[in-house]
What does this fold into?
Amino acid sequence: MGKVAFLGLGVMGYPMAGHLRKAGHDVTVYNRTAAKATRWVTEHGGTSATTPKEAASGAKIVFACVGNDDDLRQVTCGADGAFEGMVRGSAFVDHTTASATIARELHAVAAGRGIGFVDAPVSGGQAGAENGALTIMAGGEEAVFAEVSPVIAAYARMARLMGPAGAGQLTKMVNQICIAGLVEALSEGIHFAGKAGLDPAAVIEVISKGAAQSWQMENRYKTMIDGKFDHGFAVDWMRKDLAICLDEARRNGAHLPVTATVDQFYSEVQAMGGNRWDTSSLIARLERT
Ligand code: NAP
It folds into this structure.
């Protein structure tokens, strides 16, 4: 098992890096807020570094899971960036949900240094990261993907190369487009059930066994009915993702009318104070008095 590095110990990165340790890898972590890296080392062993460059130094594979395009640029490029510490023949795997544009840009910068780059956004949420059961959609070269996939397997239930650089991010966009409209429809269904005098929980228990079934329905209906959103995937993150989708659609000519509308609904949820609420909080917008 070789040396690997993990940059960004957030809700997702912290347990993902933990799975790498459990799989027997020599892991060096970096986190902008150093206290989290110290806590991770106390819990899992391994080492922590004070810069991405220091963490990446000598690593065969460097993983990252930070917030957005700008964060990703900060941890890769520049004097203290990971690329500066990486050697030719090593690989960078990015699990951030970011744009396809930055994936292609960093792929080109890495290639110029003889470093492999795979954009590898994830789906499955906090529970998927904690249980090592994420779905990973990747973009990049086959040879680099083949090299990193046995290591990624520590926290993935499914990992697939979707095409060249950026293809992983484009696939994640499809994922978010599908979820946006679905969660609004689920919100409207539960809201309607209540207004119609039905027991919303009983309704969902029945229809989730039929054609309306979805992950969101099965995993979120109880908390949606109870109006509890202090968990899960934050509205702020979803708006970041939908902005990426809408921007890409402007470029490729796709029509995303429902996605654009739901994005506006999320802006109303933010105005209600729901920036960190789970994305299922679309129902709160319908239920407000
Ligand atoms: P999070 O808990 O907010 O963690 C973000 C991590 O990135 C933190 O470690 C943060 O460091 C670090 N970071 C942010 N900006 C940075 C910068 N400029 N330089 C260095 N480090 C920086 O977020 P998360 O929920 O783990 O999500 C991470 C990514 O995965 C996002 O792109 C998100 O869209 C995606 N994702 C999340 C989920 C989910 O359910 N949460 C599911 C799928 C995909 P600090 O500790 O210093 O803030």
